[in-house]
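Q: Hi! First time doing this. I have a protein sequence and I read that you can turn it into a structure. Is that right? Here it is:
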Amino acid sequence: MLLGERAGAEPAVQAPDPFADDDLQLALYVSYELHYRGFDEVAEEWEWDPRLLGFRRALEAPFVAAIESAVQRREHVAPERVGSLLFELAAEDRGPSLSRFLATSGSAEHFRQFAIHRSAYQLKEADPHTWAIPRLEGAAKSALVEVQADEYGSGRPERMHSRLFAEAMDALGLDSTYGAYLELLPGTTLATVNLISLFGLHRRWRGALVGHLAAFEITSPEPNRRYANGLRRLGLEAATGFYDEHVEADSVHENIAAYDLAGGLARQQPELAAEIVFGAEALLELDARFASVLLESWQAGRSSLREASVQNAPLAI
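A: Yes, that's right. Below is the predicted 3D structure, encoded as structure tokens:
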């Protein structure tokens, strides 16, 4: 990542491949994190400091350009087709399957690395999508709240999905402290989380955020079934609770998210129909890149964590 100066403007960020640029994605993740739990040694006033927001805007520019280059926006999507189209996109996805690999061939070390990668999102699961609640109304808002209530444990803190993931990490012998492994995560991993924060923190991306969530729910039950099966194959039953929960919960959520939330929003605001589909396709695109990096590393016998810090990691292949 390189910064260049433009007269009277924010610094321009030059990144040949924004999705894989470790520095860009880490800087963007850190700037977004100030809107979540922040950092102990960073003053809370930085969250809305104009200088930081300008820097974040400069980081977002190449990231957004890369997303819009990788995912072709559809000129027109019929609102009544949105729900079924999201299922079709998920069924047609040809990205590499991490879940099949982990179910049949993955080792305990592979599962630990996978959990480290996913911890960037799963330890704050549902929070980025919750930004959509005040930006929706009527039936779409009601559907989103129904899904999110389950994500937060339906009133039982011990059943919050983020808590269940922390327990899975503990069972795998990992540190479940929020942000413990941030320095080990490559740009392709952080990009999958930054995508949700980008959509969530900008009202103009609300349609894409809803599409992202719907696709997230639709593509969840079967992969999580495979993850749980892979853990049981390895005798790691204690780590399966998070994945078993998602097989059950997301089998219900997928229809609510696709037809009531995404379809409902498209019917309310037809001009957002194409944007909803764009958000779903952006998820599939970045998840495919993420999966490719992990599988290529593992098939080559390498760690999938950042090489510069892998010596500090608690595991290796």
